[in-house]
Amino acid sequence: MASKVQAMDGVGYKARPGRGMLSYMWKFRTLYFISIPGIIYFFIFKYIPLFGSVIAFQDYNIFQGIMGSKWVGLAHFEKMFAHYDFLRILKNTLLIGLYDLIFAFPAPIILALLLNELRVIVYKRVLQTVVYMPHFLSWVIVSGIAIGILSPSTGIVNQFLSWLGFEPIYFLGEDSYIRSILIGAGMWRDSGYGTIIYLAALAGINPDLYEAAEVDGANRWRQTISITLPSLMPTIVILFLMHIGKFLDFGIERVLVFLNPLNIVNGEILDTYIYKAGLLGQQYSYTTAIGLFNSIVGLTLIVVGNMLSKKATGEGLY
């Protein structure tokens, strides 16, 4: 029948034959108008710069530009894998990304679950504010705090070790500690802020489920395992997939402020190497090739992770 409803969205809007997508967009025109500044931002600062990635296949010269620079094919990618330091830097990036995934990603979930158990609302709000306030500190300030705490002479950590009878440790002067410091500083700064999303998801869980569980004799731990975590799973999966998408993109500002000649062997990552070789060394094509490699790995991880997630949990990013 011509009058038969062809499609219906989640809010009850029925799309008539012939009207299609334009009619749907017009009905929700206010939302689309609101999104225009964001679309323009991503188009100008995210999508248009993608065309500049072609210099990874050129011997780029800033005076000749993209159109005048010589094409060299995959020469920069060959140079990247042949570089004597590249495998070490890639290993550092992979290990730091893996540690961040193992320790930092679950931290907001655990913190949100703990905050959700607080029954005194005022205390809960105050504590939540305190734990997410470090997120608004710059990495320069965070590194200054960490350096002060870990100082071998005046730091509180070494004072405690001295009280226990141990020798002071120069944490930022040894390769073996830099990865732990980077992960620990990131957890302290961002875990509290990350709980906001999970607390919002927790607020959407039907309270009747907990009441029914209490009637059946389930304690708080059992309720968390059987109700809370399954209800949080869609949110966890989406954030996990977004996290692995930036697996190799740890952030230059987060690492650069902690690096020094004594810990650079285990602390240097792709982002800091790109900064030094690209901006300071003016090797634009070479570092663009590294950045392109980084992006391809991230895209591959998202696609593979999304496929595995859909098969395992039925949830995915797209």
Automatic annotation (TrEMBL):
Domain ABC transmembrane type-1: 90-305
Keyword Transmembrane: yes
Bilayer topology annotation: Multi-pass membrane protein
Protein's name according to its UniProt entry: Protein lplB
PANTHER family documented for this protein: BLL4140 PROTEIN
Compartments where located: Cell membrane
Keyword Transmembrane: yes
CDD domains assigned to the protein according to its UniProt record, in alphabetical order: TM_PBP2 (cd06261)
Record-stated family: Belongs to the binding-protein-dependent transport system permease family.
Any matching Pfam family: BPD_transp_1
Alphabetized UniProt keyword annotations: Cell membrane, Membrane, Transmembrane, Transmembrane helix, Transport
